[in-house]
Amino acid sequence: MPLNARQADAIARALDSLSIELPSWGFANTGTRFGKFLQPAAATTTEEKLSDAGMVHRVTGICPTVALHVLWDLPNGAADAPRVAAMAARLGVRAGAINPNTFQDQIYKHGSLGNPDSAVRAAAMQHLLDSAAIATALGSRDLSLWFADGSNYPGTANIRHRKQWFSEGLAQLHARLSGNQRMLVEYKPFEPAFYHTDIADWGMALLFARAAGPRARVLVDTGHHYAAQNIEQIVAWLLSENMLGGFHFNDRRYADDDLTMASIDPYQVFRIFNEIFQFEWETGTRPDIAYMIDQSHNLKGKIEAMIQTVAAAQELFAKAALVDRERLAGHQQRCNLVDAENCLKDAFSTDVRPAIREWSRGRGLPEDPLQAFRESGYLERITAERAEKNAASASSYA
Ligand SMILES: [Mn+2]
Questions:
Q1: What confidence tier does 397 reach under pLDDT thresholds 50, 70, 90?
Q2: Cα separation of 112 and 354, whole Å?
Q3: Using an 8 Å Cβ cutoff, are 309 and 260 in contact?
Q4: What Cα–Cα distance (Å) separates residue 19 from each residue in 251, 290, 311, 313, 377?
Q5: What is the Å distance from ligand 1's center to 190 Cα?
Q6: In angstroms, what is the span from residue 185 Cα to ligand 1's centroid?
């Protein structure tokens, strides 16, 4: 059934409002705990990552920013900022969220802000402050904070002391934010620590963000939950507390699998977007949410996987925009359970792809971004340019 004018309009307005940030690390070779499978076209430098992101933005039109990892993309700190900013501009994108790295250096073996050694906590703090300076230099608004801190065995860490150190560190970082900068506190229940993590869930992230200051928010990585957790309820709660800062989108079947967004459970993503549109409809305010991708395409072609992800996000966002809010509110009020649920299912089952193609056409974008990419010759060019370097890089941890 073709969409009516109201539906087509709702979809166009929704799509106009959607931007998705790509992760620079999503274009590089990645692997599992057991090894890396190298791809000949994988990006090996920051410039190549920005170039690949620029390609995704060219064919989708909604990915103008790239999240950067400080250690991997700006190894010399703020000194690298002008070079990276110029490179990004040349390649058609801008720097997005800045991701500090307090997990790779050997000193962080037992934690960063939660480390019992005050010298290590100070080093982590310095890196976070440097990251804030990088964000300022690049004109990036958000600092995305994920900490690998935790412990592997009962009794080995003082959980309350570590909580206190985190609280102090995050407040200190907040004090150094400038202009409209925000800090987004990400949580994760396990991995790499397997007994406790210092910011294990949204409640802990919320308390830390509240304690840090008014420009701290919670970052929801969809893969960072226990199986079967109701993520849309967490989203609804964070919205009602005005504490939802952004998402790291990916999908999972078992743990933090970093699979392509909506590849396993598209209805989950729809339900998350539904809560956001519901909030907007009820309050008349659009929540300020950074939509970011955090995925690891170990086997799929990286640029194709990213384009596929953007298409999935647009589809589910458009479907969620179609939910008949008046009708849903009426059914909820009268406890018409089947009818209320069907409001969601009707929208979810609607084929919005023709409307998305129409929207793309109207904005001078390719109707089929994946095909446009495949026809561009870009993949052939970068494969030829990068194959040798990729073949020479290490794929074994032994
Ligand atoms: Mn993440």
A1: low
A2: 49
A3: yes
A4: 19, 8, 12, 10, 25
A5: 13
A6: 10
